[in-house]
Design brief:
330 residues; mainly alpha; 14 helices; globular
Length: 330
């Protein structure tokens, strides 16, 4: 049933992507290459890409290509979206997963403690921290982290996947220096790559940790006031066991649902984070294509983002049903 419900969601998202990338900017060929080609060459490019057809024809062609796996081709450098994803997708995935781990490490314990000790000084401090991390722009946090930890203290590197020497010595296989270093068994290179991952992942992870703290706190407070929690207390079950074994598990059900949607925030934040820390992922490439007005490539990349969000939404629904048997998706 959930897979069936995902179909209209995909149609709506793809339609929005099509309208934003085809209608709003006008002719993508003219926007990207208008000053570099003759009118005859522009007409040839436009016809080859199908942009000389009616908008409705382009709409159905776009859907057909997406469902056949053809996500388009860059106008400026000729790379297909598949090639772009193969070359730049893995660094973004590494950054996103690392950021999510950071968000969980920070958000889970702080949200539990804040909900457990409601209205205390600890609760107030955690709530302020959550509001600040949620509201502060990710690029602003990134710049502050670079200045403080990189420039002022000199503890952490502020740019790239690894130092120039490591990148020159490690054989490129996966476009992720950390994975290449692991494959080579070079522990010094692994350490260098992990250190370079700290600032961008923490910067992006803080963005999601603020959401996680606020959601988990509210749900922990509501859960700890439930009748079955009072019954467990009356039976003499210890406080930490009640909080972790009973309160935390039930409080996480709505949190997991919302956290799936935070993947979209991570992908959006990755664009700015990759620019800030010179991280060679999809976000950096997307900004490059936007600057070049290469809307054909931008459309393909945004389409992938939309499909990823839908897939994760379906996955989160399945996980929620497994965690809470009361949830049924018939």
């Amino acid at each position: 049933m959930r897979l069936v419900l995902a179909i209209p969601m995909i149609i709506v998202l793809l339609t929005l992507v099509f309208l934003l990338m085809r209608v709003a900017p006008g002719d993508p060929i003219q926007a990207a290459l208008g000053g570099h080609l003759t009118p005859e060459q522009l007409s040839e490019r436009r016809a080859a890409a199908g942009y000389d057809r009616s908008l409705m024809e382009q709409y159905f062609i776009y859907f057909g290509e997406v469902f056949s796996g053809n996500l388009g081709k860059s106008v400026t450098d000729g790379r297909t979206v598949g090639q772009i994803l193969a070359e730049n997708g893995l660094p973004t995935l590494v950054l996103t997963v690392a950021s999510l781990i950071v968000a969980l490490i920070i958000g889970l314990p702080l949200g539990i403690l804040s909900g457990r000790f409601q209205s205390s000084g600890l609760d107030t401090g955690v709530r302020i921290f959550g509001i600040v991390t949620y509201a502060a722009p990710v690029f602003f946090i990134g710049l502050l982290a670079q200045l403080f930890f990189g420039v002022y203290l000199g503890w952490l590197p502020t740019s790239g996947q690894a130092s120039p020497l490591v990148q020159a010595l490690v054989e490129p296989i996966t476009n992720v220096v950390l994975f290449d270093a692991i494959a080579a068994g070079d522990w010094d290179a692994i350490k260098d790559a992990l250190i370079h991952l700290v600032l961008p992942s923490v910067t992006l992870g803080l963005l999601v940790s603020g959401v996680l703290i606020r959601l988990l706190r509210v749900n922990m407070i509501q859960t700890l006031k439930s009748d079955y929690i009072e019954a467990a207390t009356a039976r003499g079950i210890s406080g930490p066991r009640i909080v972790l074994a009973h309160g935390f598990r039930n409080a996480m059900v709505p949190v997991i649902t919302v956290m799936g949607l935070q993947v979209a925030m991570l992908l959006g934040g990755a664009v700015l984070t990759e620019q800030t820390f010179n991280w060679p992922g999809i976000g950096s490439v997307l900004v490059q294509y936007l600057n070049n007005r290469d809307y054909a490539a931008v459309q393909g990349i945004i389409t992938v983002f939309a499909l990823v969000v839908v897939a994760i939404s379906v996955l989160i629904d399945v996980i929620t049903g497994l965690i809470d048997p009361r949830v049924r998706f018939g």
